[in-house]
Structure formats: C-alpha cells, structure tokens
Fold this protein.
Amino acid sequence: MLRTIWRCGHGRTAGSGRSARSTGAGYRVGVASPAASPDPAPVLAAEFDSEWELVLERAKRSKDLAGIHDLLGKWRHIAYLELRDSGSYHRLLTKAEQIRRTGSNPDAASWEDLQALIQQRLGR
C-alpha cells in the first residue's frame, strides 16, 4: 500500500532516477534528470515495513487493532509530506536530531518576533 504511494505518487518512477510528468491526458511520461537526487522511496518503504511487522505482531498477540490504526495514521501524514516535497521527512529528522543534540534551533524566531507577527496578521 504505502510502497505504491511512495514510488508512484511522488513524481519519480521507481528506481529509475527519472522524473515522471503528466501529459494532461492522464498519461505519465518519463523525463531524464541528470542531477536527480536519490529516490528516498526504498528507505521509507523499508522503515514502514519494519514498523508494520512490529505492529502487526503486537496486534496478532493482543487482538487489538489500535496500534495498526496509529501506524497507518502516522505514515499517511509522512506519505503526504513526501508527495508534496520528496526528501522532506529525512530533512525533518535531521533537523530534529540537530535540535536535540544542540538544545536549540538556530532557525527559530524569537518569542517577541512571533508575537509581533501575530499582531501584524491580526491587524492590531
């Protein structure tokens, strides 16, 4: 299920390093991209498969599907994120690890700047 979303839905043909482009008539045409970034689909599919196996075994033992619903909900959001911006999930993980390691986010705005932006958008 998820593997299909990753490999077909994010604009790349599986393992080819080629971008897929819609012709408008419902057809997809492969377009070579010399500087194509590596396809994150196999890594994400492997992560999903690993989590799926764990959750499925727990559900078999407990006879409770809540863990499966939670896992699918989590990966639905990841799949959507990747469809919109391929590689964004791993950039998110890298950024989270940097913040965890250093204890701060160098790209974060100050509290005062956020309050000013909110007030500006509210028209106050």
